[in-house]
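> forwarded from #structure-qc
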């Protein structure tokens, strides 16, 4: 189906970013996967070209685009199976917290550097004993004069190794568990902010995922983001877009896997003819292609409403749930058509299979999405 959500400016942006990816990303992917981290310099190069925070207003150092420019970035990275260069985590999940909840001084201090790539961001919510249950956080922040003192541990933090700036969720006291959480911006060079080991993962090999520790870490009181005790509500406000971002990535990933599998099946021969000529292969590919088309139609409608400013908690949760589950189904069926080659790491479909699994877990598991959707339905 023809897509109609993008304007000419988005397609020009797509062309430019596609060239950037071919020049600055593709030649380094194998090394990045081996090293478990992308080059720090590629962040600066992306910022210099206007590819970081493309929706950010010019007054804050951004290029002045919209969220659909971010969608282009997600889709183009998916086309080359790049899951480690976490541009969209930085641009569309973390920086929006600074943009919406930061005061004028905080915005002036951090937003231009986020857009230029001089600052790479991370967000630290998950703890060793706490995932989706944010009310059970153990990291604390206590006020001492003009400072807050942070103590606690975080884990599974993407961009954890490279980050220069980290938004940290911590308990600041109070009996109501939903009003006892606050958000703090912590610079990586603060004494007491310790970056732990880089974690070995099943997939997303080039994404630096780390443990973070805060040991009597002192930050200025001015690094409080928003108001004390409102962290939980700020997180709930921004998690909808985070889940939509995951849905976009899952959809784009599934579309690319199907396209590459169709191409492979037309070229690969068995019993004297391309395997695409076997009815079972055709049925499998038709099922996968249909899921991708259906997913794109729902997603594009959702994107139009999101860009229009609608806050769609239920629909974004539905996207995160359905698109990630669909990706899992599609990549598994496509890998099967590659036979033994589908088990070899040199084949992108193999890495896509490993990368896909976590998408049903992070940003809220499929089970949590169902709970949210049920509540939104009044059940």
């Amino acid at each position: 189906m023809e897509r109609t959500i993008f304007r000419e400016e988005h397609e020009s942006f797509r062309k430019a970013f596609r060239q950037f990816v071919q020049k600055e990303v593709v030649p380094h992917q194998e090394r990045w996967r081996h090293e478990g981290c992308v080059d720090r310099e590629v962040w600066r190069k992306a910022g210099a070209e206007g590819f970081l925070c493309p929706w950010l207003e010019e007054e804050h150092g951004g290029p002045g685009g919209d969220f659909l420019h971010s969608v282009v970035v997600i889709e183009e990275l998916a086309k080359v199976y790049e899951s480690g260069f976490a541009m969209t985590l930085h641009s569309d999940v973390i920086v929006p917290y600074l943009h919406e909840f930061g005061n004028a001084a905080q915005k002036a201090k951090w937003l231009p550097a986020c857009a230029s790539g001089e600052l790479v961001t991370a967000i630290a919510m998950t703890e060793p004993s706490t995932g989706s249950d944010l009310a059970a956080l153990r990291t604390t922040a206590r006020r001492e004069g003009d400072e807050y003192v942070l103590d606690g541990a975080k884990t599974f933090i993407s961009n954890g190794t490279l980050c220069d700036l980290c938004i940290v969720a911590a308990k600041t006291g109070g009996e109501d568990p939903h009003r006892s959480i606050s958000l703090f911006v912590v610079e990586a060079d603060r004494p007491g902010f310790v970056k732990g080991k880089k974690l070995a993962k099943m997939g997303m090999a080039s994404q630096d995922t780390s443990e973070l520790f805060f040991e009597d870490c002192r930050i200025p009181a001015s690094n409080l983001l928003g108001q004390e005790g409102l962290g939980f509500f700020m997180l709930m406000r921004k998690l909808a877009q985070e889940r939509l971002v995951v849905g976009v990535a899952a959809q784009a990933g599934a579309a690319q896997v199907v396209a590459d599998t169709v191409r492979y099946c037309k070229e690969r021969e068995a019993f004297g003819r391309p395997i695409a000529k076997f009815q079972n292969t055709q049925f499998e590919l038709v099922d996968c292609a249909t899921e991708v088309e259906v997913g794109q139609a729902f997603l594009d409608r959702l994107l139009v409403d999101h860009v229009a400013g609608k806050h769609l908690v239920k629909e974004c949760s539905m996207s995160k749930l359905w698109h990630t589950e669909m990706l899992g189904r599609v990549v598994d069926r496509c890998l099967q058509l590659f036979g033994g080659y589908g088990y070899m790491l040199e084949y992108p479909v193999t890495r896509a299979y490993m990368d896909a699994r976590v998408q049903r877990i992070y940003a809220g598991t499929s089970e949590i999405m169902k709970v949210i959707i049920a509540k939104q339905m009044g059940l």
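QC bot note: Residues 122 and 166 are 5 Å apart (CA to CA). The domain at 122-229 is CATH 2.40.110.10 (Butyryl-CoA Dehydrogenase, subunit A; domain 2).
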